[in-house]
Amino acid sequence: MKETVTMWKNTRMVILVALSAAIYAAFLIVFKGGIVLVPGITEVRPANVFPPVFGLLFGPAGAWGSAIGNLIGDIFGGTLGVGSIFGFFGNFFLGFVPYKMWGATFGLVKKDDMSMNMGDWKKIAAFELVSLVSSAACAIIIAWYLELAGIVPFAFLGITITVNNFAAAVVVGPILIALLYPRVKRWGLLWTDIMKKEDVGKGFARNIGSILMIVGSLGGLIVGILVATGTAGQELYAFAGSSGQTSVWLAVLPFIILIIVASIMLSGREQFVEETL
Amino acid sequence: MDIDFYIDSDTLIHRLDGRTKIMLFLASFIALVFFENPLFILPIAFLILLQNVLAGALVNIWRIRFLLFVLTVTGMLMWNIFTSGETDLFWFFDLESLLYSLSRTMLMLLMIISGLNLISTTRNEELVLSMIKLGLPYRVGFAISTALRMVPTIASSIQTISQAQRSRGLDLDSGNILERLRKFIPILIPVFISTIRDTNVFGMALESKGFGAKEERSFYLQMGMGRNDYLILALSFLVVMASIYLKILGLGSIPGLTKF
């Protein structure tokens, strides 16, 4: 995670944070309400495709841009609230997980070709995998906190955020990356072209880190929903029907810790290879 | 398109230092979150709404009335599903779960109104400078303020590009979910490219003006804490302390409520 701090000394990365944030926020505001799935309950926001795309192209700048963009979207949308605080962290992970996992997708992206040209199905599959994991990571971070604060139930919010984030990414993401990657590469704005390799966290046991990230994100989501709906948890987690006690946040907490540990294990240095367009 | 919630006025709340308004905003979160019983939330609700009235920001609550209505309906329904009580009322509604749903809905709405109070009375540049004065690194503050300034420009270009694409026959409102999502691509791509392509020029312009040359920065906007700021901060502190004290005494909960 070192690069999320060291990137701030680079002026172009600072600008990319600002521009990513502005684009994300502007789309959130203009298309607020998105494509309604269930009126008043949930909708698909086209803007949600941006965090994984920003993350893959701009690395840590894309992660910070997604976090700040969501916060600004709340400010301009009039919905700045306690949810915005963890919305910030959740959206950070929505942009952070894709670039950290890109080089550790169990062979879907080859070591000697880390490009994002989406030329074969393996890279599309890798994109969908990192998008799904980042969507779930974002969802459990936000839903966990809002459940803890007693504002919105985990089961409702966890699944809604995951679906909202992933729906846009799964359909539009690969096309967007395929079209934007060559231009961004030509302009020298890929994060691996701007940052120095030594400024990026080394990581260790990257494939295990990748597995832990998947377990932390998707496992946390599933367990949280099961516990929140009473399907599992009371007996399984020994919180034995304690009246007035919320067991969801205790059940999901280990998975959030797992996500943080996986973030340290994953690197991103492996993406510093010479690429051909 | 008017996307700015700031109300240009000279009220008591407007004149407070940005840092005071941020602290007030955070204090309202802390004070609210301790209570399950709606009766204990009422005094804090009164203070938040008083701040809104004093700031002349009721108009902004009206602007987001639809959102507040939707949140009220979903909040009242959701928590009844995920909690239960001992006193049956009707269908899946119990007295305890209904009270809890009411308090959670109030909590959600009041937190949004508290945020609205902050952005209705604080300019973007004042907000960012306040965050920097509270310890946010300057470069992060610069990124936030640049993004805040660029949002209206980009939002405007999204609308221009949308209209141009619609005039070429793009129909964003028909088709199934997948088709409708794909139709956003002709809007997403031009906005992204037109915004990002000048990054290098932007960077050179900033560095030629000494961006990042010195750690210590001076600011055009000057801020200062006055007597009213200290009074409001003291009052906020007292409210937060009172909330914590009541919580320690075990007050503010709903007996008989079960959460999963």
Sum up the structure in keywords.
heterodimer, A: 277 residues, mainly alpha, 2 strands, 3% strand, B: 260 residues, two-stranded antiparallel sheet, 68% helix
How would you explain this protein's 3D organization?
The complex is a heterodimer of chains A (277) and B (260). Chain A is mostly helical and 277 residues long. Chain A has helices at 3-6, 11-30, 50-58, 60-77, 82-101, 121-148, 154-186, 191-194, 206-228, 248-265, and strands spanning 35-38, 42-44. Chain B has two domains: 12-128 and 227-259, no CATH class; 134-208, no CATH class. The interface between A and B is large, with 76 and 74 residues.
Summarize the structure.
The complex is a heterodimer of chains A (277) and B (260). In chain A, 64% of the residues lie in helices and 3% in strands.
For the largest interface, the chains and their residue counts are: A-B, 76 and 74 residues
* H-E order of chain A: HHEEHHHHHHHH
Number of strands of chain A: 2
**Count of helical stretches of chain B:** 12
Largest sheet of chain A: 2 strands, antiparallel
Distance between the termini of chain A: 28 Å
Oligomer: heterodimer
Number of strands of chain B: 4
* Percentage of residues assigned to helices of chain A: 55-70%
What is the structural class of chain B? mainly alpha
> How much is the average pLDDT of chain A?
82
- Placed side by side, the strands forming the largest sheet of chain A appear as 1-2
- CA radius of gyration of chain B is 23 Å
**Biggest sheet record of chain B:** 2 strands, antiparallel
Terminal Cα span of chain B: 44 Å
